[in-house]
Amino acid sequence: MKTYRIRRPKIVVIGGGTGLPVILNGLRYQSADITAVVTVADDGGSSGKLRESINMSPPGDLRNVLVALSDMPQMYEKIFQYRFKKEDDFLADHTIGNLIIAALSEMKESTYDAIQLLTKFMHVDGHIYPASEKSLTLHAKFLDGSEVEGESKIADDRKKIDYVYVTNTHDDEKPKAARKVVTAIKEADMIVLGPGSLYTSILPNLMIEDLGQAIVESEAEVVYICNIMTQKGETEHFSDAEHVKVLHKHLNAKFVDTVLVNTEPIPDDYMDFEVYDEYLVQVKHDFQSLRDEECRVISADFLELRDGGVFHDGNKVVEELFRLVFGTKY
Q: Which pLDDT does position 328 carry in this prediction?
């Protein structure tokens, strides 16, 4: 059951991957005015194949966000999320939802317009915008001076990343935010980053210059939901403070106001590392360095254990976000 308030706080959530839908689903039941800004730099799996085939934005993260904010019956959701088997030749690994987004992107000649149509079709409570209306290519420059192109390749060599940046995949124009994204950020009461892969889910959005600048200039509370686990080839040996330092370095500003940090330990031998092979160890805490970055730190048990994996408990995180948004703006 939704919780209704006289004033629905405007909350913009930015990111991608599997963590974003967890937070969005929780927010939907708190009657927030939600805007999801979703990365378009994914070049792996079904999304990668489709963006190469028909020159569209990668649909996978957008698909998962649509489902998270939709009130369609569970059976419809299962159909939309169905993934074809590996032995199905041409359709192998594609989801029905990805194919629907691809068809509408071709029909409307725009993934952005396709998503706006689907938000109505799927009774989405909120706004969903791709970060850019053109697919982006993520580049990583490593500390040894080498560079790699493509989100799916960044973690392969497990080198230490110096910085990342994005380019338009199919032209030489400067990447820019999609319609209404900058306005949503400017009008927000709260901006939430993550949870999600630091370099491949969060920063690809912030590296769109006008989008990143809008966050820096925003008067909204900017909240970073720190990852629970370090990630192979991205944040190996990182503390929570090092995650924030990377964000601040990329935008050349100390723009994160509050960091949500999980302090509940993961039971020994719990993680199924064969399934979740990108995760390494639990993120260590460095609260003093977080304060040196001018961040308020909220540390609590945000942990959910299921299916041999480690996740944020969406309800606990959203409860904290609402305490923050009403405490800072109302």
A: 58
Question: What global pTM score does this model have?
Answer: 0.93
Q: Supply the pLDDT for residue 1.
A: 44
Residue 1: inside a domain, yes or no?
Answer: no
Residue whose token pair is 């124009």: 173
Partnered with residue 231 across adjacent β-strands are 279
Nearest to 302 by CA among 293, 287, 310, 312: 312
**pLDDT at 276 (0 to 100):** 82
The domain total for the chain is: 1
Residue 238 CA to residue 230 CA, distance in Å, equals: 7
Nearest-angstrom CA–CA distance, 18 and 3 = 25
| CATH code of residue 181 | 3.40.50.10680
What pLDDT shows up at residue 268?
A: 87
Please write down the HEC assignment for all residues of 277-319. Answer: CCEEEECECCHHHHHHCCCEEEEECCEEEECCEEEECHHHHHH
Asked whether residue 4 is domain-assigned, the answer is no
Assess if residue 235 is contained within a domain.
yes
Write out the two tokens for 117.
């149509």
Residue 47 pLDDT? 84
* Residues in the chain where the model's pLDDT stays below 50: 1-2, 4, 329-330
Boundaries of domain holding 82: 10-329
